[in-house]
Amino acid sequence: NAGVMQNPRHLVRRRGQEARLRCSPMKGHSHVYWYRQLPEEGLKFMVYLQKENIIDESGMPKERFSAEFPKEGPSILRIQQVVRGDSAAYFCASSPVTSGSGEQYFGPGTRLTVT
Amino acid sequence: AQSVTQLDSHVSVSEGTPVLLRCNYSSSYSPSLFWYVQHPNKGLQLLLKYTSAATLVKGINGFEAEFKKSETSFHLTKPSAHMSDAAEYFCVVSDQSNTGNQFYFGTGTSLTVIP
Fold it and tell me: Which residues of A fall below an 8 Å CB-CB distance to B?
């Protein structure tokens, strides 16, 4: 059973470009979470999605950031018009519908560098 | 509101000596608590979790943690450190609210193991 997959693992963008980060949850998992990790900091929650629905986006910046989890295909985190401050590691996690323990399974992350 | 405080940003131990990584939490609910480990440029791996069962939780690689409600603590311990334990460790509290299992991360403790 493959774990949570994220691609690309490393992404370099110039200021003003768009960044698209992809996350494929574990098989059978329909809950996806995105987190951002700035250097020397812990992970900060960004958004929680289920298939075709955004459940909680309280951690998303108000502008330039968006996320989706379509019926088919991976979840996408999109950052438009990137700035240097967007440079970070972005982690995706997934959990199954009936995860009573609340455990989340994390992907390897995408490291975004904005030049 | 949920939050996690990891009391030490860096811990250094000699190989073969005990490890203690401290974590205190605040939670409005009966919390679920987790410890994750992150090796350099890798994703997060679950070490162990507490979900209102036994207060002493055993995890992988010889780690364990004790949930102490009176002290609101969930410290991570290991009797004998190994070189491969050098990594970043995150204490996490889960808010199992109606909107899902949002995770709150501590800022992390970097463990160095001296040969």
Answer: 4, 31, 33, 35, 41-45, 48, 55-56, 91, 93, 95, 99-109, 111
For the segment B71-96, the average pLDDT, to the nearest whole number, is 93
For residues B13 and A64, what is the distance between their CA atoms, to the nearest angstrom? 43
Q: Does B7 lie at the interface with A, CB-CB under 8 angstroms?
A: no
With beta carbons less than 8 A apart as the criterion, state whether B64 and B57 touch.
yes
DSSP B33: E
Peptide bond before residue A39 is cis, with ω within 30 degrees of 0: no
- CB-nearest to A41 from B100, B104, B107 is B107
Whether B63 and B18 have beta carbons less than 8 Å apart is answered as no
Do A35 and A21 contact (CB within 8 A), yes or no? no
Pairing relationship of beta strands A29-37 and A10-13 according to DSSP bridges: unpaired
Tokens 């108000």 -> residue = A62
Residue A100: half-sphere exposure toward Cβ, Cα within 13 Å: 3
The pLDDT tens digits of the residues spanning A48-105 come to 999 899 988 989 999 999 999 999 999 999 999 999 999 999 999 998 865 556 788 9
What is the per-residue pLDDT across A16-31, written as a single tens digit (0 to 9) for each? 999 999 999 999 888 9
Sort out which chain A residues have CB atoms less than 8 A from B49's CB and list them. Answer: 101-103
Ramachandran area for residue B41 (φ above 0: left; ψ -120 to 50: alpha; else beta): left
Q: Do A43 and B46 touch (CB under 8 A)?
A: no
